[in-house]
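Data deposition worksheet. Section B asks for the primary sequence of the deposited chain exactly as it was used as input, without tags or linkers unless they were present during the calculation. Section C holds the resulting structure in token form. Section D is free text for depositor observations; keep each observation to a single sentence. Incomplete worksheets are returned to the depositor.
Section A, Depositor: J.P.
Section B:
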Amino acid sequence: MKKILSSLIILLLAAAGDALGCTTAVISARASATGRPMLFKQRDSSVKFNYVDFFPATDSTFAFTGVVNTRDEERESVWSGANTEGFAIMNAMSYGLSPLVTDNRPWEGIIMKRALEICRTVDDFEEYIKSLPQPNGLESNFGVIDAAGGAAYFEVHDFGYT
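Section C:
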């Protein structure tokens, strides 16, 4: 048992290194003990200070709560969150998808903020992703859930998604 624990600790330390990769999971309602879908995200980012903020509804958007980087004074990007309709989203970067758009804007955070403003369901998010201009500058996996029990994981790249 001691050897297994030692090996596991060494493996975990080796895997941690200097990597900046988020660990995420999407759990469907059927697989959940509570009968509700769940998202899990452990955020690895070079931005060490974040906060949870409330974004009120407008005539054309839903209210939501989301994680914002403290350096983002305009609150342009949201890095995970949930809205009043029961839609929630998070992401993990996929650094191997090679986006053509290289102006270094936080596209994933901008996309998640907009999704929280306008999406009620997983299907709404899929339609939103389909509507983005291409190339879209994204190289990310988005996990989404909704109040109806929907759960999905989208790998999104410059010219579409899986």
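Section D:
Helices lie at 2-16, 107-118, 122-131.
Residues 2-16 form the longest helix (15 residues).
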